[in-house]
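We close this part of the discussion by returning to an individual protein. Part of our work consisted of pairing the sequence of a single chain with a tokenised description of its backbone. No coordinates are needed to read the tokens, only the vocabulary itself. The amino acid sequence and the backbone structure tokens for this protein are reproduced below:
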Amino acid sequence: MIILIDGPSGSGKTTLANRLGFILGWPVVHLDDFYPGWSGLAAGRDMVAGVILERRFQRWDWDRNAPGAWVTVPSGDLIVEGVGAVSEASIRAGGNVMTILVEAPADVRKARALKRDPGYAPYWEQWATQEREHFAHLPDVDITLGGSGELGGGS
């Protein structure tokens, strides 16, 4: 099974993915590890299907702003999280897939994201523009988790 966790920056995707990975004993792949830079959300989204099928990805070296080492993803069950994890292509590639959307209010998300990485501040609006484009075309999801932790049905 593949669990795809999507949602805007600072919504809680990584926390949820890491907790599920720990509980289930499944590997977690973070899109943050392979987005090709701050303008790379769409490219990262398009890479997810390949990660699922090929079980590898090329890490992005954020310090050098260049591609880094290749990473092998273990076979079997998998959790993929990040903005862009859920797309028609990633759902098709995964076969047996559960999709989760994590949401939170914009002010909460921004505070969380900047606390985690103060260097993100100059890129917040650039990334938010890419997020809006991605979410305008998001397929229906199986589960929506709100900022306060409530469960909702698919969108």
